[in-house]
Amino acid sequence: MKKLVVLLLLSALWSCDDILLGEESANTPLANFESVWNEFDAKYGLFESKGIDWDSVYTVYRPQAERLSSDAELYSLLTEMLVGLNDSHVALLPTEESGFEFFQSGALGKLDSMTDFSLEIIKENYLTNHEFADPFFTYGILESNIGYIHIEGFSDLPKFLDEPMSDVLNALEGTDGIIVDVRGGYGGEDLAGQFLGGRFASSSQPYMKSRVRNGPNPNDFTSFETWNLIPTGDFQYTKPIVVLTHRFTISARETFCLAMKVLPQVTFIGDTTAGAFSNQINREMPNGWGYSLSIGQWVDANNQSYEGVGLVPDILIENEKEDLLNGVDEALERALDQLAL
Fold it and tell me: Which member of 28, 69, 146, 286 has the greatest number of CB atoms within 10 A?
C-alpha cells in the first residue's frame, strides 16, 4: 500500500478541484469503464504529447470490459489501462468500503514512500538556526553563510505570499548564496511559483506556455498562454542559487522549476522531477470511485514538453535511505559544495 506521504501529496492535488459529476449512468462494470474512457477521450490533454492512440486503447480494453463481473476485475482493468499514460496526475481513488488501494500512474505510482528527504534532518543537522514564515517557508542559515529556504507548497495566490517571502529574503539578504529546496511538500498554483521565481529574477523573460483541451479531437486546444518571469517584491536576490529537486517534486513545484531554469545564477541538484505539469480535473464514476486526469499541455518557452519525463537536474544526486537514517543529506551537501565554488 502507498505510504501516507504519497496519499497526502495526491490528496492535496485532488483538493485543487471539486469532483464534478456527469450525467448519471448505470452502475455496472461496463458502464463504469465507458464513463472513464469517454471522459479521458473528451478531456485528456496529453495524447498528442505522449503519442497515445486512445481509440486503439479502447479497441484493446472494451472487449475485456464486456466480460467484467466484479469490482475487483474493474479495478484491475482500469489500473492496467491508466498506467500506460505514464502521468502522475492520473489517479484512481476507490471508495474506502471497496477495500482497493489508491492508484497513481506515472513516476510517483512506482514509489512506495518518500525515503530520500527529511526536513527534520536538515533542521537538526545542517541549519544553525531556522525560522518558519507562514504559510510555507522554513528558512535559515547553513554553513559558509549560505541561506536555505524550503517551500512546503504553492497553494496560495501571490498576494498572500508577498509579505512572508519578503521576511524570508530580508533575513537572508546578507548570505553568499541560497539553496531553494522544493523536495517534499505538494503542488498548488502555477501563479505562486511564478511570483516566487520573480523574487530571484533581474529582468522579464518567458519561461513556460500552457493550453487546455477544448474540443472533441485530441489536438483541439485553446491558444497557448505565455508565462513570463517578472521581477517581484521590493528587491530581487540574484546571487548564486541551487534548487534541490527529487522524484516527488510535482505539478506547480515543477512549473516553479521551469521558471528558475531560465535564471543564469541557478543550478539544479538532486533527482529528476515527477514529470506532471498540466492542470488536472477530478471526476467521479457511477460507482462512486474518484479519478483525475490532465487537461492540457504545459511546455517550456521553447515548446519542450517534460510530461512523463521530468526535469533532469544539472547535477544528479539520488539520496539513499541509509544516509538519511544516519542524518546525512547528500544532495544538500553537494549543493553547499557547489555554492562554495
Answer: 146
